[in-house]
Amino acid sequence: MTTDLIVVGAGGFGRETLDVIEAIARVGAGPQYNVLGVIDDRPSEVNLNRLAARGYRWLGTVAEALAGAPAHYALAIGTPSVRHRVAEQFDAKGWRAVTLVHPAAVVGSVASIGEGCIICGGVQLSTNTSLGRFVHLNPSATIGHDSNLADYVSVNPGAIVSGEVTIGSRVLVGAGAVVLQGLTVARDATIGASACVTHNVPEAVVVVGVPGRWN
To answer: Above 90 in pLDDT, residue 46?
Structure first.
């Protein structure tokens, strides 16, 4: 059975999400999706051309989509705070978010993956891990054993979250960053690209450098 699906977000992660959907279709295992098109409030001409080259249509804005009947959707907006705001709009209208896991991702035993998560190829999700709603794991991200990622977290390409780590809602872990074993990163923090987190991180700070520091 194939489910009609709309992808929200015409940017880079939106097109990576289309890659995940296409990879799922190639292996023919699990839920299968028919992508009706992509919605985005302000798609650039470059991204519209990139979508068109792949045979996908831009369907209009979020408001235009929400004016229609509820449907299944994949929320592919990279910025955690914006993703949270948009998800609440779709929740209020009764739309149903799908969870997408690339067949080339490795998911360990007893992993809990929330509604609306998108897990790209090359991800390593270890044993006894927990992902909240609408978590994005970008290509080749690694999540260590017994770690807990709250709603709307983004882990960018090549980042490593070590074992027994707790990450609060709307945190962004930048490309190539490392969060060491047993630490807590509080909500709304941003871990800069290639930073190494060696201490617990408070709310809403930006962590940079090796070792990671913030003002």
So the answer is: yes
What is the CB neighbour count within 10 angstroms for residue 122?
A: 17
Which pLDDT belongs to residue 177? Answer: 98
- Maximum CA pair distance of the chain? 52
Give CA separation, 170 vs 61, 70, 127, 133, 144, in Å. 23, 25, 23, 11, 19
Residue 2's DSSP bridge partners are 32
The 3 state secondary structure assigned to 112-137 is EECCCCEECCCCEECCCCEECCCCEE
Distance CA 177, CA 180 (A): 10
SS3 state of residue 4: strand
CA distances (Å), origin 128, targets 42, 111, 135, 163, 210: 39, 5, 16, 10, 28
Q: Which amino acid is at 93?
A: K
Whether 1 has a pLDDT exceeding 90, the answer reads no
- State pLDDT tens for residues 54-74: 999 999 999 999 999 999 999
Other C-beta atoms closer than 10 Å to the C-beta of 27 total: 10
Joined tokens for residue 215 = 């003002």
Q: Provide, for the chain, the percentages of residues in helix, strand and coil under a 3-state DSSP scheme, each rounded to the nearest 5.
A: 20, 30, 50
**What pLDDT is recorded for position 40?**
97
Distance of CA 203 to the CA centre of its chain: 20
How many other β-carbons are positioned within 10 Å of the β-carbon of residue 78?
A: 17
Between CA 188 and CA 205 the distance in angstroms is 7
